[in-house]
Design goal:
It is a single chain. The chain has helices at 2-6, 25-28, 31-45, 59-71, 126-137, 156-164, and strands spanning 9-12, 20-23, 52-56, 74-80, 88-95, 98-105, 114-122, 141-150, 168-173. By secondary structure, the protein is α/β, with parallel strands linked by helices. The protein has a single domain (48-173), classed as Rossmann fold (3-Layer(aba) Sandwich), CATH 3.40.50.2020. Helix 3 crosses helix 4 (59-71). It starts with a helix and ends with a strand. Its main location: cytoplasm. Belongs to the purine/pyrimidine phosphoribosyltransferase family.
Length: 177
């Protein structure tokens, strides 16, 4: 975990003053650290009967696709509204100033399929919560949510656990946001 955490850079005042942006691109360019990151997720999920990895646009796709490949299971993208070409369902989530939406193809998950939902980071948990609602509306079974980074000061992982009874597993935590 310490190797992974050490490879994540912090960019102050991005995208606006006062924010400490946790950037995984510095982790991704280090082949050893990236392999270790995916190996940690594979070890956690390889014998859990996972059938699909659901990953959130856009940085969640990187680890999610690698994990799905390593597990030999399907990959399901949750994308921003208007980006998926087929028939979709949509779920809203709150932004600091307004609302946005994410979508999933209606045929992406079959009833009863066991999934892991993956993103790069959990802060307040808005996009993760919207993704949970999408998977549940398709009657998928959520084994767990997974992120590389948790920002516990923002309470997203705790809120998801309390509201949905779903654990959020994160490889590392960063205080401050």
């Amino acid at each position: 975990m310490s190797i992974v955490k050490s490879k994540i850079r912090t960019i102050p005042d991005y995208p606006k003053p006062g924010i400490l942006f946790r950037d995984i691109t510095s982790l991704l360019i280090d082949p050893e650290a990236f392999r270790l990151t995916i190996a940690m997720f594979v070890e956690r999920y390889q014998n859990q009967g996972i059938q699909k990895v659901v990953a959130i646009d856009a940085r969640g796709f990187i680890a999610g696709a690698a994990l799905a490949f390593q597990l030999g299971v399907g990959f399901v993208p949750v994308r921003k509204k208007g980006k998926l070409p087929g028939k979709t369902i949509s779920e809203a989530y709150a932004l600091e100033y307004g609302v946005d939406h994410v979508e999933i193809h209606i045929d992406a998950i079959e009833e009863g399929e066991k999934v892991v939902i993956m993103d790069d980071l959990i802060a307040t948990g808005g996009t993760l919560e919207a993704s949970i609602k999408l998977v549940q509306s398709l009657k998928g079974i959520i084994h767990e949510c997974a992120t590389i980074i948790d920002l516990p000061d923002l309470g997203g992982a705790v809120r998801i656990k309390e509201k949905y009874g779903i654990n959020v597993y994160s490889i590392c935590e960063f205080e401050g946001h």
